[in-house]
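Troubleshooting entry. The earlier prediction with NAP gave an output that would not parse, so I re-checked the input for stray whitespace and re-submitted. Clean input:
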Amino acid sequence: MAVALIGAGGRTGSLVLEQARRRGWPVRALVRSAGKLADGDALKVVVGDSRDSAAIDEVLVAPGGGPGTKVGTKVGAVICTLGMHDITVPATDFSDSVRAIVAGMQRHGVRRIVAVASAGALDHPEGGYRSQHGQAEVYRHVAAEHVRNFETLRASGLDWTLMCPLTLVGDIPASAAGSTASAGSVQWLYEDLPAGSGETGYADLARVMCDLLAERASYGKRVGIVSFRAGTGTGTSTGTGTSKKSSAP
Ligand SMILES: NC(=O)c1ccc[n+]([C@@H]2O[C@H](COP(=O)([O-])OP(=O)(O)OC[C@H]3O[C@@H](n4cnc5c(N)ncnc54)[C@H](OP(=O)(O)O)[C@@H]3O)[C@@H](O)[C@H]2O)c1
């Protein structure tokens, strides 16, 4: 079955798309601007705004079919890599989008979603969210949106997983599952943040999102995720369990 990728034109979204291609998953991708992506062998592009229920319907259900998808069939899962347009301005576009996606999934009976927030949406050991404890002022609005999205997913009744990375960086290549610290590695934990790194590679985030898509143990969980550059860190690429190779949902 196909995967709906919402935010496919962004930095994380384009790397998730690359992962999906490698795994042979048919993708229905929502992008806001025409020309960002073109239809391909296993890719159907839907142009629209993620707050718009008609656009969400079109990405979740293939009205005219599409690569790897029969007419009228719905996707098996959703990956959401949306972000805020401008994090310096208070806005609710992002959380409005996540509410629209959840409502669309509920309308069409699509149960599985893996989405991105930030480490600020994890619980702080002293209570509240991590973003409420000394986070830089510039991240205030986006952190509030990430928390709203967590609360929307938690109340949704869906099989959700919410990725909670630290600062995202583009210059760390994706670590292979089981790769060693000398080669660079990624670590993730359910409901907590692995220690020892202050950054997360976009490529690691995209790979682990795809790895977790079919991982039932990740349902209803926030996932703290960090990357270690080659020659740093202390261990091998790990999760809370073994990061399995995933098949199409
Ligand atoms: N940067 C960091 O250090 C960091 C750290 C932790 C967490 N995060 C979070 O990680 C997530 C992914 O980050 P990223 O850097 O991959 O984001 P990004 O490159 O900005 O991509 C976000 C995508 O969402 C799309 N989008 C936004 N609003 C939309 C709407 N209403 N309808 C359709 N598409 C819409 C954007 O489309 P357009 O291209 O048309 O604008 C863009 O393609 C974000 O939620 C971010 O807050 C970031």
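This one parsed fine. Residues 7, 9-13, 32-33, 49-51, 81-83, 85, 93, 97, 116, 118, 142, 165, 167-168 surround NAP (CB under 6 Å).
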